Amino acid sequence: MSAPVSIRDVAAHAGVSVGTVSNVLNRPDIVAAATRERVHAAIRTLGFVRNEPARQLRAGRSRIIGLVVLDVANPFFTDLARGVEDEASQAGVSVILCNSDEQEARESRYLDLLAEHRVQGVLITPVSDSDRLDRLADGGTPVVLVDARSASGRLCSVSVDDVLGGDMAVTHLLSGGHERLVIVGGPAGLRQVADRREGAARAISRAGADPAAVPVIDTAALTVAGGQAAGRQLASWPPGSRPTAAFCANDLVALGMLQELARNNIRVPEDLAIVGYDDIEFASAAAVPLTSVRQPRRELGRMAAQLLMEETRGSARHQHRQVVFEPELAIRRSSQAGPVSRPAPAARPERAG
Prior knowledge:
This protein is α/β, with parallel strands linked by helices. The chain has 13 helices and 13 strands. Helix 7 links the parallel strand 3 (121-124) and strand 4 (143-146).
């Protein structure tokens, strides 16, 4: 393999100094137009590619941020990433997307990699609560939590009130006359799942029932395959004791379960009503349009990126903020109700930490 074309090669080909090539790349306004064109012609001819990481390290400031999400296949995180990219692009910053796949070891490897590349900052939906992110921030890499809360208050965060969302979903099912419920989706170790279950328990208690008596079907991951496995389990229960309503931890689980129930001739919503969570684009387009708790996915990403940009500007007056959005319920056929049009969710007042 031949050696990469260097800035010296470009200078020699264009008949100018290395400093002139450097100026063309970094301060083109101070170079005469004819000289700039000669250098650019040499760059095109030789196929020169600048070493951007090395340039950024010399400048002492990266123009890259890392975004670490739980599952890039989940449309929720796709929309969230679009919001991050929209905001980062306006600030002249690029985004590296990393998929932890809900695995702590994989998440840790990505955090090490991002730190080694001296990224400007990290946006992350963490797999679990740990002090690793606090240590990363203490080492000089700003961190903002996305779709999660900062337990220590030492990091900025942007999240949705998932306890309220779980409460809204189950309250809706109870108001439809359902007494036999099931909670579907895991793993329970994910903070989002735990909060949604907490909200569900709150609604059940308020209705005078015992949350501990409500069956829970865990899934290995919040995926369509996990929902299909849960659907098969539900289909195996005797019809007389089968729940009449299910609250799913996210829409992918709900859609997978919907598919499996249809294969087993269990009607939705006549035999089993379903409410999902996230209100991804596919929810309204399902064979039975899915009732779902809606999150402002793109706005979550935008707000998180804004907070990170503010922190990386290095203001001594920066205060860590915890921004919490309120969810809303998009009611559709899967829970036996017609569609309802509701206003977009608004962020709660920010709390400085």
